[in-house]
Design goal:
Blueprint lengths: L1 E2 L6 E4 L2 H25 L3 H27 L2 E5 L3 E6 L6 E4 L5 E9 L4 E9 L5 E3 L5 H10 L10
Antiparallel strand pairs: 1-2, 2-3, 3-4, 4-5, 6-7, 7-8
Helix pairs in contact: 1-2
Length: about 160
Amino acid sequence: MVSETTERSIVVRESRASVNFLWGFLVVVAALVLWRGEFGDRTVSTRIAAGVIFVLLGVGGAAAWIWWQRHPGRLEVTPSTITLRHRGKPSPGTVFRKTGDLYLESHLVGSVRAPSRIWLLRVVGSEGSISLQFFKHREVEEASTAMGWTFAERTG
């Protein structure tokens, strides 16, 4: 969601639906595996191991979900920089205009049977990048174009 337009910057907020889907899915999967481990196996040692491992995964996923709700990400687009920020945390990434046009780069990660695509925002001729996992690409492109940035051909 694009918001908070000032004369010097545009703020693009991350998609809450994407964040909620990811962390909610991981918590539900951990709960289902825990349930299957508890009621599907007869040995005590495997039930205990499954219980410990998936309770920790479920609690970790729930904690990450809560952290993401309390520290939502946003992109601050100015005529010279694009910065990823999380409320109350140091800036994890900035790209600078001085070297060239923007482009979106994608990488396949994961297994061959279940690949996942990671999107990065990069500037031609620069090493830096910003992960766009929870952002709508169209909103990022619109905000960047409104601030005078131009996009090169898409890759990946």
